[in-house]
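Sample A.
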Amino acid sequence: MSIELKREIIEKNEKGVRVADLARQYGHSTSTICTVLKQKELIKGITPAKGVTIISKLRSSLHEKMEKLLMVWVTEKQLKGDTLTQGIICEKARAIYGDLLNQTPRTSTDEASEDSFKASRGWFDNFRKRTGIHSVVRHGEAVSSDVKAAEECLKTFSELIEANGYIPQQIFNCDETGLFWKKMPNRTYITAEEKIMRGHKPMKDRLTLALCTNASGDCKIKLCLYTIRKTPEPLSHIRF
């Protein structure tokens, strides 16, 4: 049950809606509704980190502060284009938690439980579900691109255009891309009776295409194709 839903139940109960009516409305047992109402003070005091939609259990405020700061750090790293792995995130979580722990006065009774935070795999899985962060594959030039250098180059290029009085029709951009003309899709539909689909070895036959156009878009250079053969077999019927 999400934290927003729990707060909604508490708010309606405070306005006079009975527990039985809340249970029927939200499709939960009366005992579940009563448990939420017993914890209403704690639920009201929770301020989830940005991106958190689900809180599986009520934890200390120290954990909440740590995850808030961790999400800020993750966002900053994402904007910089840095790579984040599970190990890196867990290490940062332990560091943030340790800093907060040193800044927070505590008694001997809660010291053991607070110090027991290890940023384990289980914690990371739950943190990932709460915040919605997910793993993606970095493709192509985005992996090796230098954003800062690109911005500086763009500034220099703009100054060059202005100094020489070039117009958009005189400015051309050319780039290359690969065409794997034998490669099959890596996803397919199968019948409900089947559980798996036999795999296949992907074909790596590749052609290189060069595309060029001007800044105004009214002059597109004819597509250029580069290959080790003058006329590739699958393109023998095409006139270049």
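Sample B.
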Amino acid sequence: MEKKIIRLKEVDSTNTFLKNLDTYDEDALTVAVADYQTAGRGQGVHTWESEPGKNLLFSMMMCPKWVPLRQQFLLSEAGALAVKDALDSYTDGITLKWPNDVYWYDKKISGTLIETAIDSKGIKRCIFGIGIDVNQTEFHSDAPNPVSLAQILGHEVDREEVLQKVIEAFCKYYELLRRADYMDVSGLYHLSLYRRKGYHWYEDKDGKFEGAFVEVEDDGHLILHDKKGVIRSYAFGEIKFLIPSVNIKQ
């Protein structure tokens, strides 16, 4: 897969930059990487805190028209696995927190914002906006549990090296999807999940409860069962993972 990388000193959002491109190669992976984003976004209403020149802020755009619309969550799985593969080469303890955050033990090291354009034929275009905390060592936002590679390793890391590792890993998983090897990608995603085993604390609209992982469905819904054996299904934004550093009370 051909790769085209656009390097930016500063931009409002790399996702927005790619969406506004007048022309692009639908058969290539187009990547926009910036030293700083003035309006970097996370999921929902969240923003992404990043010190200029310290972290990895980039977006990848592709046109996977051959992915079935009902299984588009496979793209999210491929993107999350690519970041995990890259970070695995530096440290252990890397897992994927549903739907597409990347954790080092109980701390968040990376997040992804995915924007998909759909037409009458299916998926037209997909953009992954990825933030990886690489060399920042102080965080000032209200994010409860950020961590960077530099904090984990005790020294700074070459951001370009991390970027190239993510891109290469993503191309590997993207090719698996192109060959319709969906179970390979989905299986690896499930094996890599944060809190895959045992009961853990969560919170939904009805309050806090202990639940155990069952599966992530093809459409991306998270399935848990509680200690009463009740099966619970959640779309993104409907459940909160209560991390150990939070004072959890029954």
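B remarks: The domain at 199-241 is CATH 2.30.30.100 (SH3 type barrels.). The helical segments are 14-19, 73-88, 149-153, 159-178, 182-191.
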